[in-house]
Amino acid sequence: MGNLNETEKWEENIYQLETSDPVLGGADGISNRAPRQLANRTKWLKKKTEEAAQSLAEHVRSRNHPDATLTAKGFTQLSSATNSTSETLAATPKAVKAAYDLAAGKAPASHTHPWSQITGVPAASLTAKGTVQLSSATDSQSETEAATPKAVKIAYDLARGKYTAQDATTTRKGIVQLSSAINNTSETLAATPKAVKAAYDLAAGKAPASHTHPWSQITGVPAASLTAKGTVQLSSATDSQSETEAATPKAVKIAYDLARGKYTAQDATTTRKGIVQLSSAINNTSETLAATPKAVKAAYDLAAGKAPASHTHPWSQITGVPAASLTAKGTVQLSSATDSQSETEAATPKAVKAAYDLAAGKAPVSHTHPWSQITGVPAASLTAKGTVQLSSATDSQSETEAATPKAVKAAYDLAAGKAPVSHTHPWSQITGVPAASLTAKGTVQLSSAINSTSEILAATPKAVKAAYDLANGKQPADATLTALAGLATAADRLPYFTGADRAALATLTAIGRAIIAKGSIKDVLNYLGLGEGSALPVGVPVPWPTATPPEGWLKCDGRAFTKEQYPVLARAYPTLRLPDLRGEFIRGWDDGRKIDEGRKLLSWQKGTLVGGHDDNDSALDISYMSNGNNIDYGGDKVFAGNYRSDYLWYAVLGGTNSRAKAELNGAFFNITRPRNIAFNYIVRAA
User: Which residues does the UniProt record annotate as the domain Phage tail collar (predicted)?
Assistant: First the structure.
């Protein structure tokens, strides 16, 4: 590759390389012809532009009344602004006074602050250092307080001799894993508050003599340690070895609760449920950690905000396009104006030509004018350049005079001794820093002791871990748990005690598993057939005092039923019909005793009849009969035609006799009955 030789000339037409042109390199080659013509034009334009600029500059200087600069006298424009960086304007006494007055009320560069003037002091959190309030509570959920060694000692002492703690649920205390997610519905994780808000923004303007500081301007703040007080970062971890962080009451509570009888769970894997540690990392390939909703959200949000791999942009979507300036290339807007002061626009050839033509008819570059020939010299003001009278005053309100370097130096020297708007303080200059206590926030000294009762020190995660580790995995202190811990458990094995503090394992049968799975004692009794009324086998008639049987029972009224409805009842009554016990007495089955021979179970038997024949064929009523013992006699009237026998037997003195049913036309005998109470016979429906 080589450089093309450029010529300062204007090419009327730009050569276009045709497909039929052979590729030919070199200075005069066809392939370089078009670039060379463009280069020639560029060099020509550059020369003409520089000539026009030089002519214009010489014309401006030819007035012989130059502007004032830092090294030469001249015309200048006044300004009362106090935030201008211009070196071509003159500050008025008013501007100098404003700067002087502002500096006079500021604090010296070297000064101190009592603690009451320190604002925006950050509170310690799980992610940032800051001041913290102490707490000796062992059941607090706070993550913004620091546990005292006393709280750690309570948890540590409680852990000695305890069994492993159980996992926490919504109905039971226990150890728990933290989560900072905000869109998680888990009921097995414990939510933490978000990080404490950052310190307030620095106040605008100069720092007044009486001012406050955001925490970000406090430098050299000591960190709390085992030997010195200072700010500390909180931690709810229970397995940290850190001695530079402060354990939260929540961490203490976790260690404390761990001592209260937990079981040891197995670790979760990709094929087995168990306990798991969370991770918010988005570049981790572990299969033994669980991603938090925060990690998932970070990956999702990152992907959601990305553009497709292949995409384009219209110009309207191109941001940060640089504008051309005196020191950098960029896009530029053209202007044909000849009186513009802009340094961000580009002059067109038309503007250059107008300036060039104007300069051609003006006075020579080198000529002078006596002051007497300079007419209409303007006076300098806040809006226009002109001549001005100087002033060294530092308390003047004038806006028509120009401050001398002496006045500016006086104001500058006064301000130089003041503290800048943005300044910091070493910790040694911060006075009145409060110490943390159980009722107030402040700096605190750390302690890794596990037997301290102090309430003004902050326990480190190392102390919490010591208490936690002591509780985690400890063998029980009592013989009963020791006996259980020595068993080699397996599936379908149930521990039981063979003696005092002696345990063994029994095989758990299907019936045993079914009983354990029942939700209540009632369900277990029903499963075993020992529910309400279960003391009697299904099918036994039971006297019931009301007309309506209880739930699960049927009246003995002769009704039919199906085996599908009541399979157990069907075994007691194979005919699938209940006995009709309404108005009947139950008699014991003879079963070979020969007192009531020939009877079958559930067979009906007529009543025993006593009395005499009514020759008048009228219903016999002997209810009026009585004896000296006031025993009532009576019975149900029985008509011979309805009786289930061909002969009716009746008693006579010295024996019995009988009559044919055909000979009896009217009411005959009465059925005798013992004294009784009417009950409703019922059976269980099962």
Answer: 539-586
Torsion region of 583: left, alpha or beta (phi above 0 gives left; psi -120 to 50 gives alpha): left
CA distances from 538 to 511, 541, 684 (A): 22, 9, 5
Share of the chain above pLDDT 70, in %: 78
User: Beta partners for 684?
Assistant: 553
Residue 645 DSSP class: S
Q: Cα(340)–Cα(57) distance, rounded to whole angstroms?
A: 14
Q: Considering only CA atoms, which of 589, 621, 593 is closest in space to residue 605?
A: 589
Residues 96 and 1 in one domain: no
Q: What's the chain's length in residues?
A: 686
Q: What is the residue range of 6's domain? A: 1-64
Let me know if residue 549 belongs to a domain.
Answer: yes
Q: Of 64, 90, 119, which one is at a domain's C-terminal end?
A: 64
DSSP E strands: which ranges in 141-180?
Answer: 145-147, 177-179
pLDDT on residue 583? 92
Q: Structure tokens of 411?
A: 């104001």
What are the backbone angles phi and psi of residue 191, rounded to the nearest 5°?
-80, 140
| pLDDT exceeds cutoff 90 at 323 | no
- Answer whether residue 1 shows pLDDT above 60: no
Pairwise CA distance, residues 116 & 212, whole Å: 8
Coil vs helix vs strand at 280: coil
In a domain, 499, yes or no: yes
Q: Does any domain span residue 609?
A: yes
| Number of structural domains in the chain | 4
Quick one: tokens of 120?
A: 């925006």
- Is 85 part of a structural domain of the chain? yes
DSSP 472: T
The overall average pLDDT reported for the chain is 79
How many angstroms from the chain centroid is the CA of residue 35?
64
CA distance 90 to 482: 93
State how far the Cα of 471 lies from the Cα of 452, in Å rounded to an integer.
18
The 3-state secondary structure of 185-238 reads CCCCEEECCCCCCCCCCCCCCCCECCCCECHHHECCCCECCCCCEEEEEEECCC
Say what the pTM is. 0.28
Query: Which tokens is 216 given?
Result: 């970000």
101 and 28 in a common domain = no
pLDDT at 614: 45
